[in-house]
Amino acid sequence: MSFFGGGGAPQQPMQPDPLFAAQTEMEMYTVLFNKLTQSCFKKCASRKHKEPDLHLGEMSCIDRCVAKYMDSQELVGKVLQAANEKQAAQQMQMQQMQQAMGGA
Amino acid sequence: MDVKLDAALQKKLEQNVINSTMKQNIDLMSKLADQCFDECVHQFPSRILSKDETKCIEHCADRFIALSQRVGQKYQEVQHKRVLEEKLRQMELNKK
């Protein structure tokens, strides 16, 4: 979301503060782990639960599921980043246009 | 926006915005990745995403972004209209 009319001076971009960033990162890994577990359980474990142990097929499915999940997260991250960069560039252009109009 | 905030408060506010933007981005990514994975990947004969799966995930993410932009636009329009109507009503009331 953007803040129109904020008139933010183009200083160097601020960074999130390190403590907050570290905390958020930890949280992210917890969430990732939970989602990964849930998703791969849903996709790989047979619903019948006949035996207490995982069988071989399920185990290899889980290993592949984890790999694929991580890859898809990376992929989505790339797409989102590209979209963010595009938006930022558009905003820059808008700002420059506004400045040019104001300065005229 | 001609309210003057003192510099320290201003800085704190900006920091908060940056912090929450970062968190929002991360949350969005993990939710979206989870959803797109769930919808696009169903079989596990290999540990590498197939071409179709990759395409599906990319499209899923792109389409979500397009959708959220569209929703944002429409929302802004509706909200803007509401504010205008409210202002008009107030003006009418003041006239009477």
TrEMBL record, chain A:
Q: What InterPro entries does this protein map onto?
A: Tim10-like, Tim10-like_dom_sf
Q: Name one GO cellular component term.
A: mitochondrial inner membrane
Residues annotated as domain Tim10-like: 21-81
Fetch the SUPFAM superfamilies from UniProt. Tim10-like
Can the keyword Disulfide bond be found in this entry's annotation? yes
Task: Reproduce the free-text note on domains from the UniProt record.
Answer: The twin CX3C motif contains 4 conserved Cys residues that form 2 disulfide bonds in the mitochondrial intermembrane space.
Task: State what protein this is by name.
Answer: Mitochondrial import inner membrane translocase subunit
Q: Which organism is it from?
A: Chaetoceros tenuissimus
TrEMBL record, chain B:
What range(s) does the Tim10-like domain occupy?
21-77
Molecular functions (GO terms): metal ion binding
For this protein, the record's Pfam families field holds: zf-Tim10_DDP
Record keyword Transmembrane helix present: no
Q: What is its main location?
A: mitochondrion
Q: Does the keyword Disulfide bond apply?
A: yes
How is this protein situated with respect to the membrane?
Peripheral membrane protein
One GO cellular component term:
mitochondrial inner membrane
Keywords per UniProt: Chaperone, Disulfide bond, Membrane, Metal-binding, Mitochondrion, Mitochondrion inner membrane, Protein transport, Translocation, Transport, Zinc
Quoted from the entry, the domain comment is: The twin CX3C motif contains 4 conserved Cys residues that form 2 disulfide bonds in the mitochondrial intermembrane space.
Biological function: Mitochondrial intermembrane chaperone that participates in the import and insertion of some multi-pass transmembrane proteins into the mitochondrial inner membrane. Also required for the transfer of beta-barrel precursors from the TOM complex to the sorting and assembly machinery (SAM complex) of the outer membrane. Acts as a chaperone-like protein that protects the hydrophobic precursors from aggregation and guide them through the mitochondrial intermembrane space.
Q: Which family does it belong to?
A: Belongs to the small Tim family.
Subunit structure, briefly? Heterohexamer.
Can you say what this protein is called? Answer: Mitochondrial import inner membrane translocase subunit
